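Researcher: Next entry: Methionyl-tRNA formyltransferase (Limnohabitans curvus).
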Amino acid sequence: MSDSLRVIFAGTPEFAAEALAKIMAAGHTVPLVLTQPDRPAGRGMKLQASAVKQLAVQHNIPVAQPLSLRLDGKYPDDAAAAQAAIAEAKADVMVVAAYGLILPQWTLDAPRLGCLNIHASLLPRWRGAAPIHRAIEAGDAQTGVVIMQMDAGLDTGDMLLTDVLDIATDDTTASLHDRLADRGGALVVRALADAQAGQLQPVKQPETGITYAHKIEKSEAAVDWQQPAEAIGRRVRAFNPFPAASAQLGADVIKLWRATVETSAHNKQPGTVLSADEHGVRVACGQGVLCVTELQRAGGKRLSAADFLHGFALTPGQCFEPHVSHKVD
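Model: Predicted structure:
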């Protein structure tokens, strides 16, 4: 089709695969996909291709998986091979979504129209690696997607298009991710149409309100019961599906998948079980009460509170460790 562009796509997880699917559905030609190398995953730790690679292979799109794009870095051969593949693709533009590698200047300059990034926050809030998790954890009322013209900084480029999305009180990272992925794919297709028509309108990011969404670490899963229930509840939602908030009761480590927050006053030590029944496991916090409605024992399945309590005795007065010190699997 005459209004299609040649689009190199760089991305790795499901969020990015959604955008790649929409770009192809819009009729654009994708001569090359860049994605992270296959990684061990699952219980068997077998090498697994990224969601983006799997989609590219299904559509017979050439895939490059360099360890780095820095020509002067630790993997110059990888970078040089990627540079050759990018040059051969003769792309109009590169679209980048949750790729996971830093793009050096030569990469940004390679396509005729430069590189467009799909970023899952309302920039400049939550620049960096984990914008969806951090928005929920912080209690933001809104988030969204920005299509950005990439420059050499960390999410510092000019904004081209923005789509605002409300964060629901029961949103998890999983549910919000899916809505943002859908919006991001649709928005980048609009941006490509604007680019084709020469109608991109870059807007500088504000110089105030800048925050950084640092990468989620497994160690953050540990629940600190001395925090307010509201803060713990946000972390439960933010860390679903990874790394999953967890609490320790004796020798048992229990993952907390879903919970509601109660403002009830109590005079118990934080971490004390106030009640445990089919409605949930209510635990005293520094302020208020967290009612956990979906739990999981190590090696077990995610279960509703009612099903969990059939196989695990929890009684009022028992106390979770005030702060988990275990190593999270």
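Model: Note for the record: The longest helix spans residues 173-196.
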